[in-house]
Amino acid sequence: MKNTISYNNTNHLLSIDQFDRDSVEKLFRIADMMKPITTRQKICRVLEGAVLGNLFFEASTRTRVSFGAAFCRLGGSVCDTTGFTFSSMAKGESISDTSKVISGYVDIMVIRHPEIGSVAQFANATNIPVVNGGDGPGEHPSQALLDLYTILTEFDKLNKTIDGSHIAIVGDLKYGRTVHSLIKLLSLYKGLKISLISPNILKMPKYLIDQASTKGNVIEEKNSITSGLENVDVIYATRLQKERFTSEIDIDSESSFQINLAKLNLYCKKDTIVMHPLPRDSRPGSYDLSTDLDKDPRLAIFRQADNGINIRMAIFSSLLEVDDLIERSMKDAKWKSPKILRPI
Ligand code: ASP
């Protein structure tokens, strides 16, 4: 199949701006095809011999490991670097030089870097595919794709449709790159109400709201949870991106944006789903998404994280143009794995 992800006629995934509804849904059908592999029933070696360069110049657990695992589950191998301090960039090497050098070693790169626009610079200096794994407070397109895929999967179980739904995005909307990509993606759908709930100092950048509003959805900004959560179908909570703050913020405003069981029961419906890109800060006093929701079936965060593998496999097979080969090259997995992956 012709690659559904293209950027200036090259196979890079840099921004959600590259997608329309059709190409997103094509990618999701490829992600669906991966289910026998991600549920460990089947194996597939379509990327045998290919090497992924997983270059993370900022902290990561999920994105780095899930991109790596997705590549391995398609039969490829992974070379990793982690942290800025241990890279040649700490010796003054430019993005362009790093990208040109790594192009000689691997077949595709996933890059996370603290500066906005940096991953596009990597892409401009190479002819191998580059995937944006998070460029500072810019975008995190693979996260938004797996978030939307999760919303659609959860809605399917609840007999709901995304068109016409009400989605609340809560927390640090200024620096949270996942929500910057997510609002662009949601705006490809129709009749949505999107409530952006954040402290005044952490509001979603205006250009993103303007861009999303042109598509005809209702976007409202709220500075309090009490007025924003009623009748929502999805709560998408986020962590305060303290590593990007330039000054201290008032702790009281943090606590009032925490999503917990009491607030969910008070303001929301019985079938509201609760999402978070993770990590959540579970340390006492952190006021992130509360752990008192952990046994509530509305909490979708681990199902959401699991979907990251399907989506990232779909991204690789699309960018490397092997998606046509997936179904027919599956074989039975031989090892024993638990039916339920984690205690509930
Ligand atoms: N893991 C996500 C990111 O890298 C969200 C977060 O860190 O809060 O942007």
Automatic annotation (TrEMBL):
An annotated GO BP: amino acid metabolic process
Gene Ontology MF, one: amino acid binding
Protein keywords: Pyrimidine biosynthesis, Transferase
Catalytic reaction list: carbamoyl phosphate + L-aspartate = N-carbamoyl-L-aspartate + phosphate + H(+)
Keyword Transferase: yes
Pathway: Pyrimidine metabolism; UMP biosynthesis via de novo pathway; (S)-dihydroorotate from bicarbonate: step 2/3
Pfam families: OTCace (PF00185), OTCace_N (PF02729)
Coiled coil: none
Biological function: Catalyzes the condensation of carbamoyl phosphate and aspartate to form carbamoyl aspartate and inorganic phosphate, the committed step in the de novo pyrimidine nucleotide biosynthesis pathway.
Family named by the database record: Belongs to the aspartate/ornithine carbamoyltransferase superfamily. ATCase family.
Name of the protein this chain belongs to: Aspartate carbamoyltransferase
Gene from which this protein is expressed: pyrB
